[in-house]
Every structure is written in C-alpha cells, then in structure tokens.
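User: structure tokens for this one?
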Amino acid sequence: MVLTTEDEWILPSQAHLLQSEEESEAVPMLQSWGIKIVSEDLRPYQNLPRSAADVPFFGIETLCGALLEHGLNQRTPLRELPAGLVEAPSASCCGER
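Assistant:
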C-alpha cells in the first residue's frame, strides 16, 4: 500500500509518483480529475516505492487519459472546463478564445 496526497492508502498500481517537486503545484488539479498522487512526504524515499512496489511515474499517458475522460479532446471554452483546470495557476493567462 502507498499513501497518497489525499491521505488515502491505495494499491501502488493505482498511484503515480511525480518526477519533480515543481510538479506538485498541479496536484490539486490532478486530484480533481481522480488521479492519485503519492504523498510528497514520501519524496525522500521515491526510489523505494518505485523499485519495491512498482509505482508508476505520472506521465503523458496518464495526463492524456484524464483529458480524454473529461472530454477535453477538442477545443473547449474556459467556462466549460473542469473546475480543477479553471482554478489552475496558469489558467489566468489564457483568455477566452
């Protein structure tokens, strides 16, 4: 079992490791899409869960799957974006097009 950023214990195959601390800014958005991220408290032991428990890194495949699952495979007006994406730090730079 592995601890997530939402303080849940889940199977390692259901969680994802972030590759850098900078990616942690995206955790609230990823959580809002149902993506489970390994707790930042476990970062010093990142190589241990990866090798011992086979926890996958968060990557483009997971991101694309989440985008497709939320219908974001086409142009979408800002007002129709999922809440986690609209509230993302970089969303304020994207005017309605």
